[in-house]
Design goal:
With 613 residues, the chain is an alpha/beta fold. It has helices at 44-49, 51-57, 92-104, 123-128, 198-214, 248-251, 257-269, 287-294, 327-340, 370-373, 382-394, 424-435, 440-450, 453-456, 497-510, 512-516, 564-571, and strands at 25-28, 61-64, 68-69, 81-85, 108-113, 142-143, 172-175, 180-183, 218-221, 277-281, 303-305, 344-345, 351-353, 359-360, 399-403, 518-522, 529-537, 543-551, 583-587, 606-612. Strand 16 and strand 17 form a beta hairpin. The longest helix is centred in the middle third of the chain and has 17 residues, at 198-214. It is globular and about 80 Å long. 49% of the residues are buried. The model has no long low-confidence stretch (mean pLDDT 96).
């Protein structure tokens, strides 16, 4: 079929070879974006109807969470047909119209690629489980029961390994008909594909190629570093109090993962004339592994999602046992990733070679809302802190990701018991832990902070019923503060969260230091502030510097002569006095203006300064 033509727009990055390094990605969780057919679920026509919002924001790439045919056991991440659209979201014609609408505005589309596992209703798995001698039996990971005296095959304790599923319960499911277990690292309805089988890999690559031929511009690859397991499969360590063994080290970053991703790159991406943007979700990845995944010389993926910074609040009981955020640890963690994927530079500071690339995000469909987690969602501080944490993220080197509603400062929601939840992970965890005697009230308190449902409440478009998301009953409750926090109250309003995001995105498009420059964290041990220096040395030797100073508490931050901050920065070789004539590019508390110099900052305020030397 003829691909919809891509039209270069002044609002977005163009089509040069490195366009993706200047790009900003916007994630859409389709069921919560916009409903047009009155069933309470968002759909693809709803996305198309809101493209002017994305165009005005200036984002360059739209990442679409799964819209494929699915039983919706895990909200579409259990795919039963990779090559069709689930009727709840629309049709292939609707997707074609979305691609055309994006391309006409100078934006691109990234599809979610979920190929570590399929749905158990996928025809591949139906064939695989039909008989042990099925030609597709080896497309999935089957194993006989472990021999345990006194237990029959298939009974608890006879699983091939002791691994727990990421969604609670064992990672193995017994199939009565063929008398073997199949592996499912997530839901029982999400059996893992066997990537050791070259037929599986070829089928996946062919499917990806057909989407690209249709006009899709890239893929976000769900848990892609789990496709290579360590064989033979063996038990994992079982921490004290845990119900199951931890198999993460045996299923993540396996011995063939780089081989598989390079093979994918060469089979699917390299033959095409345009750049295909690729991001791998890689839980448990190390900086060394990430450097190898994203080094252009490796020809694997452009960037990876890592989870270290969002795991810093995990307590002994995991994500649902949240602990207070250590901001110093957060700053140092992100700076460590910046250093690990930093470019090579010459003696003048000019970049000579890229060695990797970061994905920068605060939240997504699997994480709670950014302002509630990393900022301050008290109504008195929400707007300013939402803008400040946005500035912090967008001033890191790498590709920024904006999750739907983040550009409005949407917050975590209010839950009224376990019946308010829709997320499979949260519901399974609650029932598993109450089943072994844990306190339900304590469990609900942990879920309220970190449940994925916080991010899945509908986008708040206006102050009308259901926030303008649907005329029906929404599939999940709208956050109750939608009458105060919504797009209609912010788009075009100077100083709003939306307009701050718009300014940050435009800055990345046009400023070399922000998009490509080197990165330095200053004053790393200060918990009440965040100071970043970006620098770009042009071919003519001109040096552009961008400085971000952010207050990260309600107390504010003094920056003038004699201030503690000025003294600490001077000890690291940065004299704030040299920035008195610098351009004030953007402040969280004010719309962009033409002021100069380094201001004192009120609580949660921040300033971006620019100078050339």
């Amino acid at each position: 079929m003829t691909q919809p033509s891509f039209v270069v727009s002044a609002h977005h990055v163009g089509d040069d070879a490195d366009w993706w390094r200047r790009a900003v990605v916007y994630q859409i969780y389709p069921r919560s974006f916009q409903d047009t057919d009155g069933d309470g679920y968002g759909d693809i026509p709803g996305i198309t109807a809101r493209l002017d919002h994305l165009d005005a924001l200036g984002v360059d790439v739209v990442w679409l969470s799964p819209v494929y045919r699915s039983p919706q056991d895990d909200n579409g991440y259990d795919i039963s047909d990779y090559e069709d659209i689930d009727p709840m979201f629309g049709s292939l014609a609707d997707l074609d119209a979305l691609i055309a609408g994006l391309h006409a505005r100078g934006m691109r589309l990234v599809m979610d690629l979920v190929v570590n596992h399929t749905s158990d209703e996928h025809p591949w798995f139906a064939a695989s489980r039909s008989a042990k001698d099925s030609p597709k039996r080896d497309w999935y990971i089957w194993r006989p029961a472990r021999v345990v005296p006194g237990r029959q095959p298939g009974e608890p304790g006879t699983e091939p390994t002791n691994w727990g599923s990421f969604f609670s319960g064992p990672a193995w499911q017994w199939d009565e008909d063929t008398q073997e277990f199949y592996l499912h690292l997530f839901s029982t309805k999400q059996p893992d594909l066997n990537w050791e089988n070259p037929q599986v890999r070829r089928a996946v690559y062919d499917m990806m190629g057909r989407w690209l031929d249709r006009g899709v511009d890239g893929f976000r690859m769900d848990v892609i570093n789990l496709i290579s397991k360590t064989y033979p499969l063996a038990d994992g360590p079982r921490p004290d109090g845990a119900l199951y063994g931890d198999g993460a080290a045996l299923v993540a970053n396996g011995p063939r993962v780089h081989e598989f991703l390079h093979e994918m790159n060469q089979a699917v991406f390299a033959p095409r004339s345009r750049h295909i943007i690729t991001v791998g979700e890689t839980p448990g990845v190390t900086t060394a592994e990430a450097s190898r995944f994203t080094d252009p010389a490796s020809a694997e993926v452009d960037m990876v999602f890592q989870f270290e910074h969002v795991g810093l609040t995990d307590g002994p009981g995991g994500k649902f046992d949240p602990q207070p955020l250590d901001r110093v640890a957060l700053k140092r963690n992100l700076a460590g990733w910046q250093a690990a994927l930093a470019p090579d530079v010459d003696a003048t500071g000019r970049i000579t070679r890229e060695r990797g690339w970061n994905s920068n995000y605060w939240d997504n469909h699997d994480q709670p809302r950014a302002v509630s987690r990393f900022g301050d969602d008290d109504p008195a501080w929400r707007e300013t802190s939402a803008k400040t944490i946005a500035s912090i993220l967008h001033l890191h080197r790498g590709t920024p990701y904006v999750y739907q509603g983040e550009e409005l400062g949407q917050t975590n929601t209010v839950f009224h018991g376990i019946d308010s939840y829709r997320d499979l992970e949260s519901i399974n965890y609650f029932h598993e832990r109450t089943g072994v005697g844990d306190d339900p009230a304590a469990l609900l308190a942990g879920l309220a902070v970190n449940s994925r449902d916080n991010a899945r409440t509908p986008v708040q478009w206006d102050a009308t019923a259901n926030a303008g998301f649907t005329a029906a009953t929404p599939w999940i409750d709208v956050a109750p503060n939608y009458t105060e926090i919504n797009a209609a109250a912010q788009v075009g309003v100077p100083g709003s969260v939306f307009e701050h995001y718009r300014a940050l995105i435009a800055l990345r498009h046009h400023d070399d230091a922000v998009a490509l420059g080197t990165f330095r964290l200053l004053d790393a041990d200060a918990a009440d502030s965040w100071t970043l220096l970006r620098e770009y040395v042009g071919a003519d030797g001109e040096r552009e510097q961008i400085l971000l100073i952010a207050s990260c508490t309600r107390a504010g931050l003094e920056t003038g002569p004699g201030s503690a901050l000025r003294g600490r920065l001077a000890a690291e070789g940065l004299d704030l006095g040299e920035w008195e004539d610098a351009e004030r590019v953007l402040m969280a508390s004010l719309p962009a203006d033409a002021a100069l110099g380094v201001p004192d900052l009120d609580g949660w305020d921040s300033v971006i300064l620019r100078r050339r030397i």
